[in-house]
Amino acid sequence: MKQPELFSQEEEGPYFFEEEAEKQGCFFIAGVDEAGRGPLAGPVVAAAVIINRKLELPSGIDDSKKLTPAKRAKLFEELKSHPAITWATGIVDAQKIDEINILNATHLAMKKAVEGLSPQADYCLVDGLPIKGLSVDHNAIVKGDSRSASIGAASIIAKETRDQMMVEYDKEFPGYGFAKHKGYGTKIHTQALDELGPCSIHRYSFSPVAKAVDKHAK
Question: Which of 11, 127, 199, 216 sits CB 3.0–4.6 Å from 16 for a disulfide?
């Protein structure tokens, strides 16, 4: 199928890209985004979202990074059960990230999310860069999480799903502060790595974790 020309005119409104794809005969259009590329620990999580635009969505959908934690959590709960939303997530753990690298792991999480949708998407709008090996035609949109409502909804679901996982990991691996920093390389986290060494959800291929392994192996 010929890819829709999504950049042929000035953008207007949060559904510009979805509407342009529909003009080319696409019907189930999914927004796709991920959370967790940068942390030193935990999974990378992707979400894929199809929006039924005949139904009204909760207000405030945007790039998850621009939302307060409280607003994001509230929207997440609203989106999960909203009749206008069809969604799925894809999760790739730290061991797989170490095995195939973070870029390939991110693409794998996105593919899992898209494949988990029912109905299946016939076109995808992806935040950032193209996804290698995605079976569905797609267009990559820079800063898409703030330019497309579908991608914005996906960013919220991906981020909040991952954050909730890290809160649970904090109970399993106390002392690292996962509930607070969600695995990112904050001062508190790197100090804990230095003192405790890495645990099983750390990404051993990431430099700060590898250094901690070397230190505790001596």
Answer: 11
Determine, yes or no, domain membership for 20. yes
Nearest-angstrom CA–CA distance, 178 and 103: 23
Alpha helices in 69-124 (DSSP H): 69-80, 94-100, 102-115
Q: What is the identity of the amino acid at 130?
A: P
Task: Quote the pTM value.
Answer: 0.91
Token digits for 63? Answer: 């790039």
171-175: list long-range contacts, CB under 8 Å, 24+ apart.
173/199, 173/200, 173/201
Q: Which domain holds residue 118?
A: 16-168
d(CA 145, CA 9): 19
CA–CA dist 155, 118 (Å, integer):
19
Q: Enter the tokens of residue 191.
A: 């100090």
Is there a domain that residue 71 lies in? Answer: yes
**Token representation of residue 130:** 């193209």
* Whether the Cβ atoms of residue 109 and residue 119 lie closer than 8 Å to each other: no
Instruction: Give the separation between CA 180 and CA 186, rounded to whole angstroms.
Output: 10
Write out pLDDT tens, residues 97-143.
999 999 999 999 999 999 999 999 999 999 999 998 898 999 999 99
